[in-house]
């Protein structure tokens, strides 16, 4: 569903991470006419089935990082330090890098900087050496893939978008709207703690007014509490999966 109010400006998008969010974004963006490449740490030969199903091109991580318009880093936090050194050295300067990641100690192990309060996406940006835009981290993959609606639909789900570059944020806001969600400017990257796991806006599928209220409701001093609750949720979820 391409919103008729948006310009037809197809992009070349690289996705690093072929999990639930990465695969969902690849599928939807190909449907919308974008040229999508997707990579994982195990090599393109392991992505043949996903590429066939989504229409994305399976590539190496290095190739995905050279996409000229948008690059999405959608991997567990524990995997960020293991990305190849200098991965983004040859990334076009105008390319926007999106971080969808969330920190769950039960999955990622303890990361001291994050336990000490550093904002998750600021930590990612410091490791990869490029600024990032934070989005797609507070919605379940199934909702991301299935619940987009045309602009103006009552109750349309909204997604917060945080980052420091107005130009980069504008490009991402457009992509969010094109996917069928109201895009909410959630402030600077330093403000993106408001959409980290366990916060009021997290996985709530709220509309625009609800997202703005939830972002305002978040309290920084409660971040350890938010993280503990979301970490326990994931621990219980994984236990049920056996």
Describe this structure in words.
This protein has helices at 20-31, 48-54, 61-64, 105-108, 112-115, 120-128, 141-146, 166-178, 208-217, 223-240; strands spanning 12-16, 35-39, 57-58, 70-73, 96-99, 133-134, 158-161, 182-185. It has 242 residues and is an alpha/beta fold. A six-stranded parallel sheet has the order 3-2-1-4-5-6. The chain has a two-stranded parallel sheet with strand order 7-8. The longest helix is centred in the last third of the chain and has 18 residues, at 223-240. The chain is globular and about 40 Å long.
Write the layout of secondary structure elements.
Elements: E1 12-16, H1 20-31, E2 35-39, H2 48-54, E3 57-58, H3 61-64, E4 70-73, E5 96-99, H4 105-108, H5 112-115, H6 120-128, E6 133-134, H7 141-146, E7 158-161, H8 166-178, E8 182-185, H9 208-217, H10 223-240
Parallel strand pairs: 1-2, 1-4, 2-3, 4-5, 5-6, 7-8
Keywords for this entry:
single chain; 242 residues; alpha/beta; two-stranded parallel ribbon; 8 strands; 36% helix
Largest sheet: 6 strands, parallel
H/E element sequence: EHEHEHEEHHHEHEHEHH
Strand order of the largest sheet: 3-2-1-4-5-6
Beginning-to-end CA distance, first to last residue: 37 Å
Would you kindly provide a brief summary of this structure?
By secondary structure, the chain is α/β, with parallel strands linked by helices.
């Amino acid at each position: 569903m391409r919103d008729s109010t948006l310009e037809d400006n197809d992009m070349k998008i690289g996705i690093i991470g072929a999990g639930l969010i990465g695969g969902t974004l690849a599928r939807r963006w190909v449907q919308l006419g974008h040229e999508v490449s997707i990579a994982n740490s195990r090599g393109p030969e392991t992505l043949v089935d996903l590429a066939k199903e989504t229409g994305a091109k399976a590539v190496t991580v290095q190739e995905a990082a050279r996409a000229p318009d948008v690059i999405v880093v959608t991997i567990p936090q524990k995997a960020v330090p293991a990305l190849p050194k200098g991965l983004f050295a040859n990334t076009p300067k105008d390319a926007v890098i999106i971080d969808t990641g969330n920190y769950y100690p039960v999955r990622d192990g303890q990361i001291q900087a994050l336990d000490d309060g550093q904002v998750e996406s600021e930590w990612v940006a410091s490791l990869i050496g490029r600024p990032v835009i934070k989005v797609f981290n507070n919605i379940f993959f199934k909702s991301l893939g299935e619940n987009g609606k045309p602009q103006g639909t009552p109750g349309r789900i909204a997604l917060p978008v945080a980052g420091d570059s107005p130009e980069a944020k504008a490009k991402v806001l457009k992509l969010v709207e094109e996917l069928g969600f109201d895009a909410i400017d959630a402030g600077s990257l330093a403000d993106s703690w408001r959409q980290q796991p366990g916060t009021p806006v997290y996985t709530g599928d709220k509309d625009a007014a609800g997202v703005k209220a939830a972002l305002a409701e978040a309290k920084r001093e409660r971040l350890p509490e938010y993280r503990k609750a979301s970490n326990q949720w994931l621990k219980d979820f994984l236990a049920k999966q056996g």
